[in-house]
Amino acid sequence: MSTNKPVILFDAAARGPLSGVRVVDLSRLVAGNMLTLQLADFGADVIKIEPPSGDSLRDWKDDGQSLHWKTYARNKRSLVMNLRDAVTLDALKTLIRTADVLVENFRPGTLEKMGLAPDTLLELNPELIVVRISGFGQTGPYAHLPGFGTLVEAMSGFAARTGFPDREPVLPPLALADMISGMFGAQATTMALLAREKGMAHGQVIDLSLLEPIFAVLGPEASIHRVTGKVKERVGSGSNTVSPRNIYRCRDGRFVALSGSMQAVTMRIFDIIGHPEMKTDPRFATNGERVRNRLLVDAAVGAWFAERDRDEALAVMREAGATVGPVFDIADIAADRHFEEREIFVEVEDADNGSLPMHNIVPRLSATPGVWRRPAPSLGEHNVEILSEIGLDADAIAAIAAAIQATP
Q1: 234: DSSP letter
Q2: Other C-beta atoms within 10 Å of 394: how many?
Q3: Which of 34, 133, 202, 279: CA 20 to 30 A from 181?
């Protein structure tokens, strides 16, 4: 990615639409960090409570650098605490009294064992929004299971729909369930804050699982199974719903994605590939029949792409109004004008590298956009700052520091 782009400099004084909202983040790894990133990017004061060993996301390294941490902890502050220490736990309660939101992703029951059950938290702060992230929810037969996204991606039905029919189901190569849950969680948090502002509620508890958001993303699977009595087979990059729709290999070895999700578009595609007779052939005239005969459709479309280089094929298809696009990897994205001009990724100042490309703040708000206030914090960078803000004196701060040092 170009390093000639203007570098975004952090401005601690910048204010976003969530400025004044304080979030205490007790979570680890991805879902909680994704949730609080969304809030932090729009101005919330997100305080990451980290154990002395740090959030486990710091350990996800590439070439020795914690690039996941640099991205998902931007705009946040770090407060290290040994929560097994009574003095420290009291300080946490004092902090919670000043907060609007608390986010945690311990296994269900852990918060209660710490003496921080939701009822206790709401007694401390009746206006508090408590977001409880877990793999399978706070109730139900699976509530006690470890809440890792890999398990959820397998058990949600997602993996069973991904891959080819003659191969094993495929898991996503990234923390998809966590990311989806984090975005749902940020939406739920802002809804709860709005409900509080409108007087519809005071504090409340959000029971956010990884399972339910990714299951919701699968759409009408349950209805389809009830009505048809069938379990959809895996179709690789094809579709059980639309044809043509697939990834096709071009003569130069590069790939394109094509979708004929509208009837008129498919009719154009048949003309482009030199098979206008397919428009009236009963096997291909309607989408339902094309889905049933999708292997024949893919063979005809694929043969056309195989005779042309990718850029030529894209130009012809786009000129005729077909819905088609190239398959990009990150190197392609780095060189693509649309990504560059839209600033889908931006160059952000970084102490270790001078600058780093990161995904821009999303979504884009015209009047109250997100803000770049601070880089991802070093471990415990803001301990003295935050503890002083909530009124602790030097002796109390020193006691908390001693508890951190005493952690096994």
Answers
A1: P
A2: 10
A3: 202
State residue 3's pLDDT score: 61
Q: Distance between CA atoms of 275 and 291, rounded to whole angstroms?
A: 17
- Structure tokens, 241: 């719903």
Amino acid at 126: P
CA nearest neighbour of 358 among 72, 78, 75: 72
Helix pair angle (86-97, 394-405), 10° resolution: 120
Residues of the chain with pLDDT under 70: 1-3
Tell me the pLDDT tens digit for each residue of 163-172: 999 999 999 9
* Integer angstrom CA distances of residue 172 from 152, 154, 162: 11, 10, 9
> Is there a catalytic annotation at residue 252?
no
Assigned token pair, 275? 């098979």
Q: How far is CA 165 from the centre of its chain?
A: 28
Task: Read off the pLDDT of residues 289-310 as tens digits, 9 standing for 90 and up.
Answer: 999 999 999 999 999 999 999 9
Task: Using alpha carbons, select from 47, 44, 195 the residue that is nearest to residue 129.
Answer: 195
Please give the Cα distance from 239 to 4 (Å, whole number): 41
What's the distance, CA 224 to chain centroid? 27
Query: Is this prediction's pTM over 0.90?
Result: yes
Q: What is d(CA 237, CA 243) in angstroms, rounded to the nearest whole number?
A: 11
Q: For 44-76, how does the pLDDT look when each residue is reduced to its tens digit (9 = 90+)?
A: 999 999 999 999 999 999 999 999 999 999 999
Strand 101-104, strand 129-134: pairing: parallel
Residue among 178, 207, 298, 309 flagged as catalytic: 178
Neighbours of 268 (CB within 10 A): 17
- What confidence tens digit (pLDDT) does each residue in 122-132 have? 999 999 999 99
Read off the tokens for 32.
């909680």
- Sign, CA dihedral 196-198-199-201, equals negative
